[in-house]
Amino acid sequence: MDTEVILSYLPRYVEAFFLTIRIGFIGIGISLILGVIVAFLIHFRIPVLGKIAGVYIELFRNTPLLVQLFFLYFGLPKIGIAIPANVCGALGLGLLGGSYMAEGFRSGLDSVPASQTESALALGMTRKQLFINVILPEAFALSVPATVANVIFLLKETSVFSAISLMDLMFTAKDLIGLYYNTTEALCMLVVFYIIMLVPVSVIGNIVEKKVRFKMLGA
Amino acid sequence: MEEILSVQNLCKKYDELVVLDGIDLSIKKGEVVVIVGPSGCGKSTFLRCLNGLEDIQDGKVIHDGEVINPCSGKLNKVREKIGMVFQSYELFPHKTVLQNMLLAPLKVKKADKKEAEKEALKLLDRVGLLSKKDNYPRQLSGGQKQRVAIMRALMMQPDILLLDEITAALDPEMVREVLEVVIALAKEGRTMVIVTHEMSFARAVADRMLFFDEGRIVEEGSPEEFFEHPKTERLQKFLLSFSYAR
Q1: Shortest alpha-carbon distance between residue A206 and chain B (Å)
Q2: CB of B145 less than 8 A from some CB of A
Q3: Which residues of A touch B (CB under 8 A)?
Q4: Are the C-beta atoms of residues A216 and B137 closer than 8 Å to each other?
Q5: Contact B145, B178 (CB under 8 A)
Q6: Taking CB atoms and an 8 Å limit, are B90 and A118 in contact across chains?
Q7: Which alpha helices (DSSP H) does chain A contain, by range?
Q8: pTM of the model
Q9: Complex confidence, ipTM
Q10: What is the per-residue pLDDT across B138-190, written as a single tens digit (0 to 9) for each?
């Protein structure tokens, strides 16, 4: 491995690293908001909207991100909607992630024992009071592990952004290999940058998971 | 004494399965009614019908002159007056002991926080758990959790307390600490409907015993006649299952 090559590639990787993180976290932000809304629509069995939410989940969970991005980036312009690549990336990630997050939140809501609901009702609480004070905090704690796993999964999914010519880490590595044939350096740096991006998320996620579970559920 | 709760021809069915088949019962203020019976006889379901956790298919439950099941008004208002304690405690795991006790009074009754807190501490002190006020349920033993659960129900100042097999999940040594609390409440004149498998406790605490089987009240009477001179063969057989001989 040639240190000089690595140093000369570094600025491009750093740039790509921040682009990946930026679009990745915007996409994750969208997925969290979307996931909560969709999970509530399904949990409360809201007429019509609940069914639409179900269809959304199946549609986006069962198609690859690459296909979704192609649709957004190359398909939509055909009907007159042109979206810039970075918006497509964030939106695609948000839509895919939303379906995963929704399932995670929904399972959290469903996992709160019915007996907790009954004991809150027996104390005279209304459905609304018991949802806000009892179900929501417990469901939140129960869905943290799934949420952390989804965040890591979504950050890794950013590697298909290169297909819509976003200069993310994957694109940068492929580009540099194509230009200079320093395959070893380029690929090693690719791996290192993904690890730099994901290990902290994983570590922090584990800590948050333990803390929240212990605080909320005592186990 | 005045009647506080009355049950008339209560019937509960799950589709074709009849769980409660025409129960009539009148409970007076200050009375302790203990229900025993084999598993699946409908005794727990009966308690749950009394505070509207279960809907009923026929008959009615009247509390303080008002029909509460089937309920036409606000069930949550009724439940404030009818406290219930469950087998599995059901404390809220993300709240401390004190927060568990204050949640319903503050949210439901909009009670004054200072007053409610004073009351909660008094009740905790009474059951010897004052030092646990800032602990989480996970840090308590089963017996301690159940004592907190009883006090949490009392915080709403209910007219009636429903106790659903509250010691069934406890180690034998912890059963006593919980049941002594219940006996103290009985002495104070609390109205209670208790479902239990603890026969010696039932005998000590009850003003009136009921024996449920297959969704009906098969026999009822004072603890004395109930345990010493059971009239029906079914009850005689049931009571025999609690005594052992070699």
Answers
A1: 19
A2: no
A3: 115-116, 118-126, 129, 133-134, 137-138, 141, 215-219
A4: no
A5: no
A6: yes
A7: 3-43, 49-61, 65-70, 85-111, 114-122, 127-130, 136-157, 169-180, 183-217
A8: 0.86
A9: 0.91
A10: 999 999 999 999 999 999 999 999 999 999 989 988 999 999 999 999 999 99
